[in-house]
Amino acid sequence: MAKSRWTAERIEPVMRYSFIILTAGAIVYNFINAQWEIFLSAVATLLLFLLPTIFSKRTKIVIPAPMQIIILLFIFASMYLGEVHQYFSRFWWWDRMLHATSAFLLGYIGFLLIYTLNKDRNIHVKLSPFFIALFAFCFAVTAGAIWEIFEFLVDNISGSDMQGARNLEQVYGYFDTRLGLLDTMRDLILDTAGALVASAIGYSYSQKKLSKDGTFWKMKDLFIEENPELFPVTQKKKKQAR
């Protein structure tokens, strides 16, 4: 495990700086060519690439290198390829793939959040594995629903096409957001499916039906190891076990 962590810690900064350089190039290119919509998408992408570092410095919460690599790859696929290089328009399955992936990741984050707090905090009520999985599921689906609301608002305010009314006629000079209903419902279904898979896997781990040697579980342990001040009880138990 130490070797894989060392490798991830070396790969993560190289990947981050490479993505930042590519995005900076896209910003300059689209500014020169006055492609303002893509220019703004590239600026937003650059900010997202910098966000994990800013978050860690402001909150003093360490995001393990493997987690950062996953986050970077998702931002690269969704923003740089999806928005800047218009993969959402070029490949019909790109948006669906990312929705399913993001829902799984959000479900996993929700599971780790409630599981670690449930194990580490001195609270009177301990949640069962079912309710931990239910929280993870609801966390991911809620995030997906909020994103769809955000797309709807942006389309109504700016007349953009985030809801997926692509290749359809414009009404009074802007896309009628009702035409994106089919895309929105597909996204929500994929969000629900991804969240269900993540919460089901988390439930199986909690019930000890799956081996805790897998990546799904080790990522939780790695996060706790990198942030001992957040989980003093868990760290104390580990030291006593040794």
Task: Break the fold down into its secondary structure elements and pairings.
Elements (H helix, E strand, L loop, with lengths): L1 H31 L3 H24 L5 H20 L2 H4 L3 H27 L8 H30 L22 H26 L8 H12 L5 H10 L1
Verbal overview:
The protein is an all-alpha fold. Helices cover 76% and strands 0% of the residues. α5 runs parallel beside α7 (181-206). It is globular and about 55 Å long.
Subunit organisation of the chains? single chain
Low-confidence stretches: none
Taken from the alpha-carbon principal axes, the silhouette is globular
Radius of gyration, rounded? 20 Å
What order do the helices and strands follow?
HHHHHHHHH
The major β-sheet equals: none
Count of alpha/pi helices:
9
The chain-level structural class is mainly alpha
End-to-end separation in angstroms reads 18 Å
What percent of the residues sit in helical stretches (DSSP H or I)?
over 70%
Query: Proportion of β residues?
Result: under 5%
- Summarize model confidence as the mean pLDDT: 78
Tally the beta strands.
Answer: 0
Jot down its keywords.
mainly alpha, 242 residues
Briefly, what is this?
This protein has about 240 residues and is mainly alpha-helical. It contains nine helices and no strands.
